[in-house]
Amino acid sequence: MPVDHIPKPSDGAVTGGFIALYTLAQIGAFVAFIPMLNLLLPLKAEAVDLSGKAVLLSQVMVIGAVVAGFANLAAGVLSDGTRGPWGRRRPWIAGGAVAVAATHGLVYLADGLWSLIAAVVAFQIALNLMFGPLNAVLADRVPDHQKGTVSALQGLALPTAGLFSAVVLAIALGGLAERFLITALAVPLLVLPFALLVPDHSEAGLPATRPRFSLGVLTDRDFRLAFTSRLLVQVSITLNVLYLLFYLQDVATLPSASGATAETAFGWLMTAGTLGGLIFGFIGGILSDRTRRRRVLVMSGGVLMAVGAGLMVAQPVWPGPLLAQIVFGIGLGLYSTVDIALVAEVLPDRSSAGRDLGVMNLAITVPQIAAPLIGLGVLLAFGGELRWVFAISAVFAFVGAIAVMGIRRVR
Question: What CATH code would you report for 14-200+218-406?
Fold first, then answer.
């Protein structure tokens, strides 16, 4: 039964059924790209070029991120202007979910630099055609007094995807083909129920004019500060995601008695950090609705991420990396969850929510370009010493955390 057939609360709040399916769809969207970035693509780069894996990974990530930025902005503009029986967002969400599954197969089959680049480009286009319109649903459909609660559940998507990557892919499964297949199947299974069962009436009452490509929303001071904060923190996140496995292989001293490999240690670190992020992210989202003080919670999350990245520099001997990733994960869960609600409130115009969130998404995709370049520059400057990459990560997280406190429209 379509979720909108469930009686609606009189205050305009979204229903429990809507929230449940939307949360599952968000988890599916994050499962689409978190395992790809932190495990599948690094392992594929290693399989294609063992000796040059870090450089190859950086090259592929930069090109893919450029494509992702344009694709997400295009998806936002296109879905803002889409009209029809399926509404503005649903056609793009459903079609993108199926395409993401197919492009996982392309990445797996790639056997060289150019085929891997082509596969990642196709993957990023499919991902962002799904992800941009899905993110716009929060601004379209959820009233302000529920944004923190829905964001608390939506914020579970990132750490849950990390848990999927750590437990299912890194620990439970051993073959690269199995890892790609399970991920490809999980995405449409989680995303399509929302796209198929929840009617989209977000275009009701909006002007018939179609939004255009524009970066004009960056002239809004509060939006610009939220963008800057997310941009800086995402550089920190991307550096941690990209180089954690290589850090465990080449820098960390793992417990010799346990016989742990870098991949299994990666799985356990991701699991520990994810569990911390799940708990604190959920609590933070609920508190941000009840207190309506989102900025200080976002700032606290960014500061904790900076502390965690700093511990990676200072304590490479076990259990230092474990403690570092727990602290980083707690900060990431808190920051990412509450920041979702903060950004949804900062948007100046509902009719162009998809486009403006596409602009905001540049704060995620630009770091996917910048972070590999920064990481590569640091590695070249410091003789391949990975600990300096995490030192830079700590600086970006801290500055990004402080930036959010200048926002005025949201407390």
Answer: 1.20.1250.20
